[in-house]
Design goal:
binds NADP nicotinamide-adenine-dinucleotide phosphate, Rossmann fold, alpha/beta, six-stranded parallel β-sheet, 10 helices, 2 domains, binds zinc ion
Length: 349
């Protein structure tokens, strides 16, 4: 018998999130039943709840930064024990056979990853529901081990914001002797600053919010640039090896590409709701590269969690009760968050 679980859902692009009961499946042989303690609020949740990418399905139960405890396990599960801390990120299944899946990059599964919410379960074709809920049932292959040394609430945002910044920073060369700029100091951006610094790079924050200067320096940045100040960007032209663009709102890419030195790379992870034109000259000058990056696979996500505990890193969070989730969304839309809201699911009954 599937069990009924309390959750919060939005029933349309213009409705607030409100209490809603969902069903979770009985655990199959490889499933873990996880009681959710904390769930981070990613800007993706806001884009999807408000249908800003035009593929939302309602009712939608968001949440893909999940930390909880295993409370039951399927008959074939051997490597997890009841009571262990478990994490669930942005996807809960994939085909497991294609080349990306075999390479541990399930986010690029040729049959499509099954996203934690607003996705379609393989087999049943049911819509998936995310972590703004008390409990989730997930195949053990898609569950992360949350190291004991991490505070569980501050670890939750690592499951998306952490891996989404860690992966491109490592892949595109954040390292000693390299200059890295992080564009946008929000949930992703603040983790980007921490990881770029931990990887040994010289770090600059590019922000449209002058009030975030002290925070940026405290989080590990060496320098802070207010992008709105006239002439501020021109001073840094041709200077960076890597720009990590985490901005959620529409913005031109050209002015930030111009900050790259010869063979520099700009990695986009932010997903603004509309496309932006790009002049070829921004790329051909200095032979620049513009790349994108999408979360990370299970193996790399575990590597990121282990890296985080080794370096004593987790998110700076504002813990909220689920009843305050709509107010948190309004603040997130305004860029007013320091630096991730995390829902305490003990407040949902
Ligand atoms: P967030 O916490 O809201 O941060 C976004 C930041 O963008 C803001 O804090 C703000 O930083 C900056 N910004 C610049 N112009 C803005 C404007 N006009 N209005 C509001 N903010 C503005 O969002 P997030 O959770 O970090 O997510 C960022 C983006 O990444 C979203 O589009 C999200 O969907 C996407 N995402 C992508 C992936 C992936 O795998 N590629 C994964 C997760 C999320 P300043 O104040 O410093 O300018
Ligand atoms: Zn996310
Ligand atoms: Zn696959």
């Amino acid at each position: 018998m599937p069990s009924s679980v309390p959750a919060y859902a939005a029933s349309s692009a213009t409705s607030p999130l409100a209490p809603f009961a969902i069903e979770r499946r009985d655990p199959g042989p490889h499933d873990l039943v996880i009681d959710i303690d904390y769930c981070g609020i990613c800007h993706t949740d806001l884009h999807l709840v408000r249908d800003e990418w035009s593929h939302s399905r309602y009712p939608i139960v968001p949440g893909h930064e999940i930390v909880g405890r295993v409370v039951a396990a399927g008959s074939e599960v051997t490597s997890w024990k009841v009571g262990e801390r478990a994490g669930v990120g942005c996807f809960v299944d994939s085909c497991r056979r294609c080349e990306p899946c075999r390479d541990g990059e399930e986010q690029f599964c040729l049959e499509g990853m099954v996203t934690t919410y607003n996705g379609t379960e393989r087999g049943t074709k049911k819509t998936t529901y995310g972590g703004y809920s008390k409990r989730i049932v997930v195949d053990e292959h898609y569950v992360l081990r949350v190291p004991k040394g991490l505070d569980p609430a501050a670890a939750a945002p690592l499951l998306c914001a952490g891996i989404t910044t860690y992966s491109p920073l490592k892949r595109f060369g954040a390292a000693p002797g390299r200059r890295v700029a992080v564009l946008g100091l929000g949930g992703l951006g603040h983790m980007g600053v921490k990881y770029a610094r931990a990887l040994g790079a010289e770090v600059t924050v590019l922000s449209h919010s002058a009030r975030k200067r002290e925070d940026a320096l405290r989080l590990g940045a060496h320098e802070f640039v207010v992008t709105e100040d006239p002439g501020s960007l021109a001073k840094h032209a041709g200077r960076f090896d890597l720009v990590l663009d985490t901005v959620s709102a529409p913005h031109a890419y050209g002015p930030y590409l111009d900050l790259l030195r010869r063979d520099g790379t700009m990695a986009i992870v932010g997903v603004p709701p509309r496309p932006e034109p790009l002049a070829a000259s921004s790329l051909i000058t200095n032979r620049r590269r513009l790349v994108g990056s999408l979360i990370g696979g299970i193996r790399e996500t575990q590597e990121m969690l282990d890296f985080s505990v080794r370096h004593g890193l987790a998110a700076d969070i504002e813990r909220i009760a689920i009843a305050d989730v709509n107010a948190a969304y309004d603040r997130l839309a305004r860029g007013d968050v320091r630096y991730r809201f995390v829902i305490d699911l003990a407040t949902l009954s």
